[in-house]
Design goal:
Blueprint: H1 2-11, E1 15-17, E2 20-22, H2 30-50, H3 59-78, H4 86-102, E3 111-115, E4 122-124, E5 129-133, H5 143-158, H6 161-173, H7 176-187, H8 192-227, H9 234-244, H10 255-262, H11 301-309, H12 324-343, H13 347-358, H14 365-383, H15 401-412, H16 415-425
Parallel strand pairs: 3-5
Antiparallel strand pairs: 1-2, 4-5
Length: 427
């Protein structure tokens, strides 16, 4: 906690970077999380009383799913996953209410929250809450793109996608066909793994098709909602084009980068630190036949873009809205996201993203401090054998080669060399 407080104190002092001054948003307010937690506890109690559950075998499962979702959300509040800042809250609420009022939707039924999450995404919880991840500001270039994303999430709520999804999942899980297939696999003497894998693939594809359909539906009605704001319609296509690539890592760390960054004052890295420990099951890490697009945070953007382009008029303005409030958030988004990752104890990812920036900006004092503080935390976790809590696991399916190399490096480096690197980054 001491280093986290120190990092915030560092960022509350203006740090010059070119023409930019950065002051971190405090994301550690206990008072804010307590008030928000009480608000949502009451909200969930009210919702649960009003839910009319269907009769049948899936009834209890539906109750369990709602309870699990709500508890998960309350845990996020408890762990201070949401940013409480009057200016940011007022700004985002203004954008959401602009959409709602233009479309004659009751603003009292909706609430918008800003999450510390660095993932480039936003989501709807099904109870009228729209959550915007701070990481989204790394991608949006203007306010119009942000407003379309919010319109899209309002579309999910308007169409009751979360509620319908819970009921559909419960029905599928308790369906006679799935139960029968599962029992059949259990009776098999040989080939259980293959049969189970094939069943899982079918469920994944079916789920993907439903996700894809819901995203297209939310795009469609979201574009109608967005159109009523009279903002630039091309922004919808622009942001979907960017989101289509958001799951792809745009930068990486090579062995040469590590040597450039860490080899200081006569210190030399050893090649063996980058050797990856091959899993016995590595040949199964990447399942053949799985559509990569089905694993994306934003499925089938190419099709969705084409559908929206058909709705665009032949002529539209190239001007987009970027008022001062948006520009300030956008300007600070890179540093703030690194701070958010650190304050969320995601020291590995915070360090990884910091290093990718630092290799191009080695004179940046803010990046130097973030790297130093993350190194300290990861060093402590190595000493205490808790590194897996703070650093991602090696994963051939979901990680890039660069991220897997980073994980290997942090796990393989000698403690004495770790100490040398930390001292070299000490300001």
């Amino acid at each position: 906690m001491r280093h986290t407080v120190f990092l915030f104190l560092l960022f509350t002092t203006l740090v010059s970077f070119g023409q930019q001054n950065f002051v971190a948003i405090d994301t550690l307010s206990s008072e804010c999380s307590n008030v928000l937690g009480q608000e949502y506890q009451k909200k969930f109690e009210s919702i649960n009383k009003s839910i009319v559950l269907k009769k049948g075998p899936e009834k209890n499962l539906i109750k369990e799913l709602y309870s699990e979702m709500q508890q998960n959300f309350l845990e996020k509040i408890k762990h201070k996953d949401f940013i409480c800042n009057n200016d940011l809250d007022h700004y985002l609420k203004g954008l959401m209410n602009e959409i709602l009022t233009k479309n004659n939707i009751n603003t009292q039924d909706y609430k918008i929250l800003l999450s510390k999450n660095s993932e480039i995404n936003a989501y709807n919880t099904g109870d009228g809450t729209i959550v915007v991840n701070y990481g989204l500001f790394l991608m949006v270039e203007n306010e119009d793109e942000l407003v379309f994303v919010i319109s899209h999430e309002i579309g999910h709520q308007f169409l009751n996608h979360v509620k319908n999804g819970i009921e559909a999942y419960a029905k599928l899980s308790k369906s006679e066909s799935i139960i029968a297939k599962t029992k059949e696999i259990q009776r098999q003497k040989y080939g259980k793994a293959t049969k189970a894998s094939n069943l899982m693939k079918n469920i994944i594809y079916e789920d993907y098709e439903k996700r894809r359909k819901k995203e297209i539906e939310a795009d469609s009605i979201g574009f109608v909602f967005y159109g009523k704001t009279l903002r630039n319609p091309k922004a919808a296509v622009n942001i979907l084009t960017k989101l289509d690539l958001s799951d792809n890592e745009t930068d990486s760390l090579t062995v040469a980068d590590y040597k450039f960054i860490f080899e200081k004052n006569g210190f030399t890295l050893k090649q063996k630190y980058f050797n990856e420990e091959k899993s016995l099951f590595s040949k199964y890490d990447k399942m053949k036949g799985i559509n990569v697009d089905s694993l994306k945070s934003h499925p089938d953007c190419a099709t969705r873009i084409k559908l929206i382009e058909k709705k665009l008029e032949a002529k539209f303005s190239e001007t987009y809205s970027s008022p001062k409030a948006f520009s300030e958030i956008k300007k600070n988004s890179i540093y703030q996201n690194l701070y958010n990752l650190y304050s969320s104890q995601q020291y590995g990812i915070s360090l990884y993203e910091s290093l990718k920036l630092y290799k191009k900006q080695t004179d940046d004092p803010v990046l130097q401090k973030i790297i130093h503080l993350n190194l300290l935390k990861i060093y402590e976790s190595r000493i205490n054998y808790t590194i897996n809590r703070y650093v991602p696991a090696h994963d051939n399916l979901n990680n890039s080669d660069s991220l897997n190399r980073f994980v290997s490096y942090l796990n393989n480096i000698k403690i004495s060399d770790f100490e040398t690197i930390i001292n070299n980054f000490k300001s």
